[in-house]
Amino acid sequence: MNPEALRKAILKYEFWGVIFIIFFGFLLLFSIPNSTAEFPKYFDVQKGIGLNQISDHLVESGFIRTGLPFKMCSYLFGGNIHSVAGVYQFEKPLGPCVIAKRISLGTFSIAPVKITIPEGFMKKEIAARFSDYPRFDAVKFMALAPEGYLFPDTYFFNPTVDEDTVIETMTGNFKNQIEPLAPLILKSKRSEKNIIIMASIVEKETIFPEDRPIVAQVLWKRLDLGMPLQADATFAYINGKGTFQLTDDDLKINSPYNTYNRTGLPPTAIGNPGLDSIKATIVPSKTNYLYFLSDKAGHMHYAKTFDEHQTNREKYLGK
Questions:
Q1: What is the pLDDT of residue 17?
Q2: Facing residues of 293 across strands?
Q3: CB 295 within 8 A of CB 206
Q4: Do 131 and 98 reside in the same domain of the chain?
Q5: Which residues contact 203 (CB under 8 A, 6 or more apart)?
Q6: Which of 160, 169, 202, 204 is most buried, taking the most CB atoms under 10 A from its CB?
Q7: pLDDT tens digits for 25-81?
Q8: Are residues 143 and 239 in the same domain?
Q9: Dihedral pair phi/psi, residue 103, rounded to 5°
């Protein structure tokens, strides 16, 4: 091969090499998913929003790394003229072209999601379970949701759900669960509000079901005698601390939820009690106990007098 022919051959291979590199680069840019986002994830396309805003929001939310491939593919699928508003559920990382196609064609792929709310959860903990739902406003939920009346259960919610629907569903479940207990509540001669507040404390104070009716009895008795409840569980509502984290300074905190330096019940429930704790609070055990404490394994130890209680403190807590 003469030098000129060799030079042309080299130029030809270099040209196609550059073309291949450009093609491969575009292939990566348009098809490789953004692996930095956690999935499943939801994306809300608001009605009337433009393609540039959609693209910016996708980048900000971590679905895509850059907006150019998404916008180019949206033009291909007609999304520049008409992107379909709604909540999209992305089960796994997707490339920008796949996302563009789904938003352009309105392929939402929405399916109900199972959410379990454990007994005793505070409403702020419930709000955190819905943090990925784009139409759920946690601030409004915290302002509107009644603590103690959001029944802990397993629910199936669509990712399009908002805070009003969650509140309505959970409080509706509470009403259905509490309705059969109305005769027992009436017989107890205590208000439903006070029962739910007390049940929320019983829920937080106990681990084992057999302790709930006894702890409820002790707390009701202390309340009726005008004694402070001295329930450590209320501090979780004040500063997030548990029994074995509390200091002497914590016990002096100026708060209506401090049951050490105040008598009576807190102004609201300190969580959302389950049905067993509510029943135990409505119909507590009949004992002469006036004190209880929990060891580090969660087992309760009861006492009728302060001296007996002090003995239990020394024996089970070392103080």
A1: 39
A2: 301
A3: no
A4: no
A5: 119, 120, 212, 271, 273, 274, 277
A6: 202
A7: 444 444 456 555 566 788 888 887 888 888 888 888 888 888 888 888 888 777 667
A8: no
A9: -70, -35
Do 281 and 210 share a domain, yes or no?
A: yes
Find out whether 29 and 17 touch, Cβ atoms under 8 Å. Answer: no
Give residue-wise pLDDT tens across range 243-277: 778 778 878 889 999 999 999 999 999 999 999 99
Residue type, 295: D
Structural domain including 154 reads 113-177
**What is the token pair recorded at 220?**
């009701």
Which position has the higher pLDDT, 16 or 144? 144
Residues 304, 217 share a domain: yes
- Domain finish residue from 137, 156, 177: 177
pLDDT at 37: 56
Looking at the predicted structure, is the pLDDT value of residue 242 above 90?
no
Residue 41 forms beta bridges with which residues?
90
- Confirm if 154 and 169 have CB atoms less than 8 A apart: no
pTM, rounded to two decimals: 0.74
d(CA 292, CA 60): 52
* Whether residue 164 is found in the same domain as residue 246: no
Mean pLDDT throughout 158-181? 94
Token reading at 204: 């937080």
User: How far is Cα 127 from Cα 137, in angstroms, rounded to an integer?
Assistant: 9
User: In Å, what is the CA distance from 84 to each residue of 46, 59, 98, 189, 248?
Assistant: 9, 18, 14, 56, 58
Higher pLDDT pick, 318 / 182: 182
- Nearest C-alpha neighbor of 112 from the set 94, 128, 89, 140: 89
Q: Are residues 52 and 155 in the same domain?
A: no
What residue type is 192 in one-letter code? E
Name the DSSP letter for residue 192.
H
- Judge whether 274 and 174 are in contact, CB under 8 Å: no
